[in-house]
Design brief:
This protein has 311 residues and is of the alpha/beta class. It has helices at residues 9-14, 17-25, 75-90, 138-142, 161-172, 181-188, 194-200, 205-208, 212-229, 234-258, 263-270, 274-286, 290-301; strands spanning 31-36, 48-55, 59-68, 94-100, 113-118, 121-126, 128-131. It has 13 helices and 7 strands.
């Protein structure tokens, strides 16, 4: 029977909510009182977490946590709407915080506020921004920040093998945290070389597919495919979106594990159907070499191609 796990933002924060909230706000006097529903009719995402806190200085207020894989140009407008809805529902001040996990693409500019002016009226919303690639990995261990353990590879200084091994040991030695190793492995593929990932990390795709960040990558590919497939009809667009997402994930995984692939191999992968790409993804996770991957492809698509670019 397929196991169901929760490795979303709320689950991670619940591992150590007070330590997490104190780290985010920089206020060591905060105490977490409760997790509140952040489900609003018009604005809601899997990575929105609304926490009720108590402060000796500021009284009772809400901390709105927004975790996103990469900075998004539309996020400022979303945070403005989310903050207003939270204030309206709970009649409490809201302190919004955006956590960016991975650096932005070149076309996206980081921002810490929303601002608009129309017909003499001004709308403005500030929010705090924390970029994980700028956060010192040592804080995870010094402040017992269990929610950050899966993100260790993308933190500042987190690419060191000894540091990652330390994080893995903490996950494996706690039954409640063990399933998060798959999420740590996922983020490790963005920053580590293939030999390190294969040597010290375990994959569990059943668990990983429950991650909203994994699904966010798939959705990015889906949206691109839908845009390109509009003239071909909705069903064809959906199929194209799924295939584009799978192609990008498989290419990224193979490049991380075995180094830059040849153009011929990349093109061969791009021609695969969605069901073939799913099979290839599973093979790519366990294959001992890129040659094993190309052998798998040859059995399904034709003669073997040169696997890696010449030096």
């Amino acid at each position: 029977m397929t196991k169901t796990v929760d490795i979303g933002a709320k689950r991670l924060i619940s591992l150590s909510p007070t330590a997490w909230t104190r780290w985010l706000t920089g206020d060591d006097t905060l105490e977490v009182l409760d997790f509140l529903s952040g489900e609003f009719q018009w604005v809601s995402r899997a990575n929105d977490v609304l926490v009720k806190v108590q402060s000796p200085t500021h009284g009772t207020f809400l901390v709105a946590n927004e975790l996103q894989l990469r900075p998004d140009a539309r996020i400022a407008r979303r945070i403005r709407a989310y903050t207003a809805l939270a204030e309206e529902r709970y009649d409490l001040p809201v302190y919004p915080i955006l956590v960016n996990i991975l650096p932005p693409t070149p076309s996206v500019v980081l921002t810490d506020h929303f601002h608009s002016e129309f017909m003499g009226l001004v709308g403005h919303q500030d929010f705090k921004v924390i970029n994980l690639w700028e956060a010192d990995v040592n804080l995870v261990f010094e402040q017992d920040l269990a929610p950050l353990l899966p993100f260790v590879p993308v933190l500042k200084g987190g690419q060191d093998q000894a540091v990652i091994s330390r994080a893995i040991n903490l996950l494996r030695n706690n039954e409640q945290l063990a399933e998060l190793e798959a999420l740590l492995a996922f983020f490790a593929t963005f920053v580590l070389q293939s030999d390190v990932v294969r040597r010290i990390l375990r994959w569990d795709m059943v668990v990983l597919r429950e991650s909203p960040w994994y699904n966010e990558i798939v959705q990015e590919g889906l949206q691109q495919g839908l845009q390109q497939g509009l003239q071909q009809g909705l069903q064809q667009g959906l199929q194209l979106g799924e295939e584009r997402a799978l192609v990008e994930v498989v290419r990224h995984l193979l490049n991380r594990r075995f180094g830059e692939m040849t153009l011929a191999l990349a093109e061969q992968i791009a021609r695969l159907r969605a069901d073939e790409l799913r099979q290839l993804f599973d093979v790519a996770l366990e294959a001992p070499s890129l040659a094993a991957v190309t052998d798998f492809l040859a059995k399904r698509t034709g003669p073997r191609v040169v696997a890696q670019s010449p030096n």
